[in-house]
Write a structure and sequence with these properties.
Layout lengths: L8 E4 L7 H14 L3 E4 L6 H14 L6 E4 L2 H7 L3 E4 L6 H8 L4 E6 L2 H4 L7 E4 L16 H12 L3 E4 L7 H6 L4 E4 L1 H4 L4 H12 L2
Parallel strand pairs: 1-2, 1-8, 2-3, 3-4, 4-5, 5-6, 6-7, 7-8
């Protein structure tokens, strides 16, 4: 089940060609700095590799920090993750709910009203891209904080802002109605992920 506080700072892995140990150590550094959830996003890795990394993260992360798999509900089950985050091209959230049952966490990416229709079966929504981002090639145009605020109301679910977020703009995202922020580049590409997470967590005011 989702604890809304776990959405305060979601650290999303950057998909770079990193070893399992490097991913785990960077995730743990983010958690020490204040990350409250970790999302494993390895777009170019095969299923076996994703499960291997996910199992290592499940074993290493504190029980209070859920691991969320990107896209793949089947892999979430295989590795014992807390849940899955799906996008518009993945299985619909309603189908994912039937696979995962009532207790695992489901997040849904939302960038417009059509995608917001998927939110009824989700525990939370990731709304964006709020700002321009190079981390996700298919992210689309930035929607801005005003549209984030509107979509958060439409979805009627706890929301995290995603896309181009760092310590300089995280406060504006939370002020617009997001429960927290989800961050890739400003955390996993940082030279000091722990310090970067601490700055981001402070910027959220939570």
């Amino acid at each position: 089940m989702l604890d809304p506080d776990s959405l305060t700072l979601v650290a999303i892995t950057d998909g770079a060609q990193r070893s399992t140990d490097d991913i785990v150590q960077r995730a743990l550094a983010c958690v020490r700095g204040g990350a409250t959830m970790v999302q494993l996003r390895l777009k170019d890795a095969d299923a076996r590799t994703q499960v291997e990394v996910a199992r290592a993260l499940v074993a290493a992360l504190p029980a209070s920090v859920p691991l969320i798999m990107n896209d793949r509900a089947d892999l979430a089950i295989a590795c014992g993750a807390a849940g899955v985050h799906v996008g518009p091209e993945d299985l619909p959230a309603a189908a994912v709910r039937r696979l995962l049952g009532p207790d695992r966490i489901i997040g849904v990416s939302v960038g417009n009203d059509a995608e917001a229709l998927q939110a009824s079966s989700a525990d939370y929504v990731g709304i964006g891209p709020v700002y321009a981002t190079a981390s996700k090639g298919d992210a689309g145009e930035a929607i801005g904080v005003a549209e984030l605020a509107r979509l958060a109301i439409v979805c009627a679910r706890p929301a995290v802002g995603v896309g181009g977020i760092d310590a300089s703009n995280a406060a504006a995202v939370v002020a617009a109605g997001a429960r927290g922020v989800a961050v890739i580049r400003a955390l996993f590409s940082a030279s000091d992920p722990e310090a970067a997470a601490r700055s981001l967590r402070s910027a959220t005011g939570r």
